[in-house]
Amino acid sequence: MAKQLLSPLPGTFYRRPAPDKPAFKNEGDKVAVGDVIGLIEVMKSFNEVKADMAGKIVKFIAENEEPVMAGQPLAEIA
Amino acid sequence: MGISKLLIANRGEIAVRILRAARELGIKTVQVHSTADTESLAVRMADQAVNIGPPHAAKSYLNIPAILDAAKQTGADAVHPGYGFLAENAGFADAVEAAGLIFVGPKGDSIRVMGDKVAARAAAEAAGVPVVPGSDGRVDDPESARLVAQAIGFPVMIKAAAGGGGRGIRIAHDMSEFETLMPQASAEAKAAFGDGGLYIEKVIDRARHIEVQILGDGKRAIHCFERECSLQRRRQKVWEEAPSAVLPQAVREKLCDSAVALAEAVNYRGAGTIEYLYDDQTHHFYFIEMNTRIQVEHPVTEMITGIDLVREMIRIAGGEPLRIAQKDVRMNGHAIEARINAEDPAKNFMPFPGAVESLSVPGGPGTRFDTMLYAGYQVPPFYDSLLGKLIVWDETRDAALDRMARALRELHVGGIKTTKPLHQLLAADPAVRQAQFHTRWLEPWLEQNAHRLTA
Q1: Cross-chain Cβ contact B55/A12 below 8 Å
Q2: Which helix (H) or strand (E) holds B276?
């Protein structure tokens, strides 16, 4: 059963810890509850986005550096 | 020359501030903005507005080609960078001039020199400005490190020469501690950066942050006295004053003269600020850095001197020589600025973007509120949290503190959390009232007073 991981906050979504670092997770990667899958930058403060269910990342819905609203889907986990 | 149309390459309250100065000078304004700022106050007020890209600053407010295109498209003949974003980007200043436009600020080369820590320190020393005592460059062997430490006096900071971000920093209070910590610092630096070289610097304990406002026209420079910005959280200024309440007049004169000497030595043009650490026990001051732009806290200087700094920097950029002689810069009364941020002080200053449902702005004598807010505005989450600055002036510091408390009571920002409750506590705090603080004072105070901020 696929479930969408929603952004907890409004801001800018990042898939990498830093521009020169690899992505936290890629499509197809397994995730456990609490795994960091990205960051949301809100007013220059960075907040981790954690998986709320275990499974596999089917796809990312939001792109790296995309502006997102709170409650907007970021990724699909199944 | 003279400027006829000014492009404002910034956002928020400073964009509004620049627009007002330009309008008073009869200059038309072009406000560039991201798609997140289409409904911003600056866009609404400007004569023209140009969308330069998506919310992410790298794609809009930091996008030099898009900004230059907007200037070309609107026929702007000058660019004001504000603070932050591209304000201290030497390449941007060069690109603006290469496009045949006026950059409202110093030459790119001045930004380059003062933006480089080592070059800025060398320039300060050459101009006779005291710098924080330390090893002039790296030390590689233990014996010369010992000699430097002995010469500058304890406590000293041991830093990785190759470092940054606080890695490898140790503080030694005496020689025996130094002997223990130096090899550790060197080993950690070697492991972290592949370079065990160290840098030794004197620790200025309980230092205050004091800075001098400068105006220059490329030949002559004047100072507009100092500001004290010792109340900081995570190295961000929270509350600023002019003048400093603790600076003896003789020290003030030496400090301000040193800033003028440095500004003239680098042929500084425009508004700038020279920042110092000040030790109120010894009355020594030490150069830290120069900010080659207008600063957030410039209004407190405007309030005590009557000089409109933003207007003056635009006039200078337009080719006018500095209109003010040093002897005509007078200090009158005391001014305080409180930064009103979209942050929740009850939740460890968590950012709080969102809709401003209602707004009441303080007024009355000696009260100024520089802001980007209006009722119904949506504060976007993409940029810094500064919503506005509440600035008060009064004849004395005590009266200014009372006026700040009064003005804060009048301020209501409905719908979002702000730092107003913090400033209300600070305005009434006995230590603040006595000006007994330093740059490391506020953070422990916040821990001790956390319960009062959650009430």
Answers
A1: yes
A2: strand B269-279
Can you give the residue ranges of every domain in chain B? Answer: 5-104, 142-202, 208-454
Looking at the annotation, which residues of B are catalytic?
293
* ipTM reported for the complex, 2 dp: 0.85
CATH number of B5-104: 3.40.50.20
Residue B164 and residue B199 in contact, taking contact as beta carbons nearer than 8 Å: no
Query: Per-residue confidence at B164, pLDDT binned at 50, 70, 90?
Result: low
Could you say which architecture CATH assigns to the domain A3-77? Beta Barrel (2.40)
Please answer yes or no on whether A45 and B351 come within 8 Å at the CB atom: yes
Q: Which two tokens stand for residue A22?
A: 């690899």
A43·B54 Cβ contact <8 A: no
Q: Is A19 on the interface with B (CB under 8 A)?
A: no
Residues 23-42 of chain A whose Cβ lies under 8 A from any Cβ of chain B: 41-42
How many helices (H) and strands (E) would you count in chain A? 0, 8
Q: In chain A, what residues touch B351 (CB-CB under 8 Å)?
A: 42-45
B117 has pLDDT over 80: no
| Mean pLDDT confidence for B385-410 | 98
CA B379 to CA B355: how far, in whole Å? 6
